[in-house]
Amino acid sequence: MRLPTPLYWANEGIAFLLELVALVCLAWWGWRGVEHMPLRMVLAVAAPVAAAVVWGLFASPKATYTLPRAGVLAVKALVFGAAATALWAVERPAWALVFGIAVVVNTGLAALAPR
User: Helix crossing, 93-112 with 69-89: angle to 10°?
Assistant: First the structure.
């Protein structure tokens, strides 16, 4: 199955936005996760940086290490799952559900109709 070109590029754009949202969610969780200010700042920076490094190494289009499709999907599930869990942890369960559904639809389209 091939997506029409405009739909393919729209899906790719949405994928990038979802990746950015995942980083923001992890930073938000890091900021809200603890009361101690120095640890709060460390978590707010370290959580999204760790996710970005893992993504860049294994899941990005120009990843350092090439994984089979199942491996890339596992890395995406890890990062996006952490972001959805972070939303749940900051007491936004509806946002977590909407984010999770958007990720599943977007990743499903990308996996079923690659270019």
Answer: 170
Instruction: Outline where 59-92 has alpha helix (H).
Output: 69-89
Please name the residue that has the structure tokens 């969780």: 29
Domain span including residue 15: 5-112
Measure the CA–CA gap between 91 and 64, rounded to whole angstroms.
35
Helix or strand run (H / E) with residue 19 = helix 5-33
Q: How many domains does the chain have?
A: 1
Region for 91 from its dihedrals, namely left if φ exceeds 0, alpha if ψ lies in -120 to 50, beta otherwise = left
Q: Print pLDDT tens along the chain (115 aa).
A: 788 888 999 999 999 999 999 999 999 999 998 889 999 999 999 999 999 999 999 999 899 999 999 999 999 999 999 999 999 999 999 999 999 999 999 999 988 876 6
Say how far apart CA 109 and CA 115 lie, in whole Å: 11
